[in-house]
Amino acid sequence: MDTAAARARGLLYGLLSLFFLPDFDEKRLSLARNVLESLPKTGVERFDSAVGDLREALAGKEATEIREEFERLFIVPFEGAQIPLEASYYLEGKLFGPSLARLRELLGELGLARGEGVSEPEDHLGVLLAFMEAATQQNSLIQERELFYNFLRPCARGVTAKLEKEASFYGKVAKMLEAFLELEERFFEEA
């Protein structure tokens, strides 16, 4: 596998994971802005448009605004419909279902584990994106594909379907996530 392509894919997974983990801060905001500014045009209209929209949305945002929107959408149940971020919810209709055990087994095969201090379960969207970032660097395409199709894709599809209705910042994050994952599907089909 092309190491430059693997690094680029990993960079995008890492960027997107920043937005789906709690406690968004100025450090993450700065990193996200830097990564988005460094991305060249790909020639894929939907992806390039999503990158441009997210770059523009980030330009006027403070970390506290992003953190508050995250909490409103994903954590605080009293401010509207809380959007689950766990793959087991989208796969089985409940949290901590059998798919989480299967995911943990796959992660063990890949030698991946949650980072210290991460309290979200392994099937949480932000954690799955971070796992995909790490998996892109391991040259284990079969297991990477399994992680993508069996866990990340169903979770992301469920979350983005709910977020794309949002005219807010996270609607733009969802648009970029979906556009990137469509590129990843093409990558896996051609690999």
Mean pLDDT across all amino acids: 92
Rg over CA atoms: 16 Å
CATH class: Mainly Alpha
Taken in chain order, the helices and strands follow as HHHHHHHHH
Structural class label: mainly alpha
CATH architecture: Orthogonal Bundle
Number of beta strands: 0
- Major sheet attributes: none
Question: How many structural domains does the protein architecture include?
Answer: 1
CATH superfamily: TorD-like
CATH topology: TorD-like
Q: What general outline do the C-alpha atoms trace?
A: globular
Count every helix, treating DSSP H or I runs of 4 or more residues as helices. 9
Strand content: under 5%
- Terminal CA distance reads 9 Å
Question: Unreliable stretches, pLDDT < 50, 5 or more residues?
Answer: none
Structure notes:
The chain is an all-alpha fold. Helix content is 70%, strand content 0%. The protein has one domain (3-190): TorD-like. It has helices spanning 3-19, 26-38, 45-59, 63-75, 87-92, 98-110, 125-135, 141-163, 169-190. Helix 7 packs antiparallel against helix 8.
Please supply descriptive tags for the structure shown above.
9 helices, TorD-like, globular, 191 residues, single chain, 0% strand, mainly alpha
